[in-house]
Amino acid sequence: MQLAGWRHIYSGKVRDLYTPADGSDAHLLVVASNRVSAFDHVLEPPIPGKGALLTALSNWWFARIDLPNHLVDDRAAAPEVPAEVADRAMLTRRLEMHPIECVVRGALTGSGYAEYERTGAVCGIELPAGLRDGDLLDTPIYTPAYKAPLGEHDENITFARSVELVGEDVATALRDASLRLFTAARDLAATRGVVLADTKFEFGRDPLTGELVLADEVLTSDSSRYWDASAYHDTALPRQDRLASFDKQIVRNWLSEHWDRTGEPPALPERIVAQTYERYRELYVRLTGGEPPYAPVAV
Ligand SMILES: N#Cc1c(N)ncnc1-c1cnn(Cc2cccc(F)c2)c1
């Protein structure tokens, strides 16, 4: 997408990164698309309103986190944010990003559970035997990953390896901040009937002050797993329903019934698009207590 005053430099599955077209290097524009991904595929069509809703959720969390973050407050000294993306863009300070995905897990699932099944540990952290997919951990664990080159899969590493990569002081600060932020967010989500199972933070160093700065998006359902607490604790439900991702399960269930996982996935029907937006909206309302800033035009 062309944006006046900005040059596109990278597209992830669901977000796009821009640098100022005038060549200045103090800022970046992070634009959340309406794209949705599942099973490592970007799906069609986009979900109208998704980008704006997740940007609002990230901003809501940033405002409640007592750490310096990369959002630009004083926009007078920064390039203008184009109106067409204003509700789904973050104008940020450009940081020297640490090459670590700071993953914190309060429950064992996904790649963490797969590693546990193979080794009995995750990122070198030994866990009790007999844990099952989705089990809550007695205490959250920090399971960092080394950020692979853009577009490749990240590699789970031990804390000791993160020390080798970024030094003892930074590695310790990343771990301690990530565990503290996760625990606070998990406890807040629990009061809203939502289980925060895991999340991923990214941090950078401010080149002007040297301080540790929270970057990227925070605690969105693209960077985190959120489950409905009542379903999660209903042990009579099938496990897949107890661990249903708040926002993507509708899409995953429909694809499981309409795609054999070969070739490209079929386009989502309009009703699945509408139901999926409603799930994003329900998560936003449950967590924040307010309405999201944007509702797609009724079709
Ligand atoms: N945030 C931030 C940030 C910053 N404030 N300063 C320097 N670099 C980054 C930065 C670099 N990669 N990413 C991940 C990313 C985000 C959005 C879209 C993508 F495709 C990829 C973040």
From TrEMBL:
<dbReference type="GO" id="GO:0005737">
    <property type="term" value="C:cytoplasm"/>
</dbReference>
<comment type="pathway">
    <text>Purine metabolism; IMP biosynthesis via de novo pathway; 5-amino-1-(5-phospho-D-ribosyl)imidazole-4-carboxamide from 5-amino-1-(5-phospho-D-ribosyl)imidazole-4-carboxylate: step 1/2.</text>
</comment>
<dbReference type="GO" id="GO:0005524">
    <property type="term" value="F:ATP binding"/>
</dbReference>
<keyword id="KW-0547">Nucleotide-binding</keyword>
<keyword id="KW-0436">Ligase</keyword>
<comment type="similarity">
    <text>Belongs to the SAICAR synthetase family.</text>
</comment>
<dbReference type="InterPro" id="IPR001636">
    <property type="entry name" value="SAICAR_synth"/>
</dbReference>
<dbReference type="Pfam" id="PF01259">
    <property type="entry name" value="SAICAR_synt"/>
</dbReference>
<keyword id="KW-0658">Purine biosynthesis</keyword>
<keyword id="KW-0067">ATP-binding</keyword>
<feature type="domain" description="SAICAR synthetase/ADE2 N-terminal">
    <location>
        <begin position="8"/>
        <end position="258"/>
    </location>
</feature>
<dbReference type="GO" id="GO:0006189">
    <property type="term" value="P:'de novo' IMP biosynthetic process"/>
</dbReference>
<dbReference type="InterPro" id="IPR018236">
    <property type="entry name" value="SAICAR_synthetase_CS"/>
</dbReference>
<protein>
    <recommendedName>
        <fullName>Phosphoribosylaminoimidazole-succinocarboxamide synthase</fullName>
        <ecNumber>6.3.2.6</ecNumber>
    </recommendedName>
</protein>
<dbReference type="GO" id="GO:0004639">
    <property type="term" value="F:phosphoribosylaminoimidazolesuccinocarboxamide synthase activity"/>
</dbReference>
<dbReference type="InterPro" id="IPR028923">
    <property type="entry name" value="SAICAR_synt/ADE2_N"/>
</dbReference>
